């Protein structure tokens, strides 16, 4: 699945797709409430109202950069709260390479935030040691986000495991670039501070030849949160802030024909036009 935004190309590579079993993350998104949002069906929910979601990476190609945005769960990891996220043996890197994005062709890894399902493929296990998966890349972390987890991850065992196997090895290897949450990374790419889901969460604004895209990360786990801005995820560090961030971010782009591509949106993208929402089919 891919999109063209002027001279920028965005390609999605999926690691894991799910249908249902999402109430633990979005408790207000009941089947009945989903059926009240027919624009979600069938691409983002089933006829019965079960949510469709995915864990994936977005490959962003600009005239000067080759970027992977968020890196999923990864293989061989331990200490995850979700049992099936431990000791994975997924051919994600093979799919990435088959799509034309061999790890050594990536020059930038950009993490919207440092949660478990966005940093896993930052590293891979080689001879018992965690090493950078993308050998020629600089890893871009938000400074606020990185420093928060550096100082607080020890407070929860699962957070510490994620930091130690998927983030700290990058810093120890001298491959991490800590940036401001509103940094400009290229002519076409600017970061937007979008805290609430995590302390230093960032979204990505892409502009090229008069076209725009917004990669929201986990500002919204599912498009239903674009209609219900007050529906916070159970994983949000500050639910009140996450609600305010959604309201501000989506209002900012309400009058602009912007592609909205979420960190867990499983299909296509959403176009918001004022208070209306529309699924844009691809191909």
Secondary structure layout plus pairing:
Elements: E1 2-5, E2 8-19, H1 31-35, E3 52-61, E4 66-69, H2 92-98, E5 108-110, E6 123-126, E7 129-132, E8 138-142, H3 143-152, H4 157-172, E9 176-179, E10 184-186, E11 189-193, E12 202-208, E13 211-217, H5 224-227, H6 239-252, E14 258-262, E15 269-273, E16 276-280
Parallel strand pairs: 4-5, 5-8, 8-9, 13-14
Antiparallel strand pairs: 1-2, 2-3, 3-4, 6-7, 10-11, 11-12, 12-13, 14-15, 15-16
Helix pairs in contact: 3-4
Count the E strands.
16
* Total helical elements: 6
Largest sheet: 7 strands, mixed
What distance separates the N and C termini? Answer: 9 Å
Q: Regions with pLDDT < 50 over 5+ consecutive residues?
A: 279-283
Quaternary class: single chain
The rounded Rg comes to: 18 Å
Q: Which word captures the global form?
A: globular
- Strand percentage lies at 25-35%
Helix vs. strand class: alpha+beta
Instruction: Record the strand order, biggest sheet.
Output: 1-2-3-4-5-8-9
Give the overall average pLDDT.
Answer: 91
What is the string of SSEs from the N terminus onward?
A: EEHEEHEEEEHHEEEEEHHEEE
Helix content: 10-25%
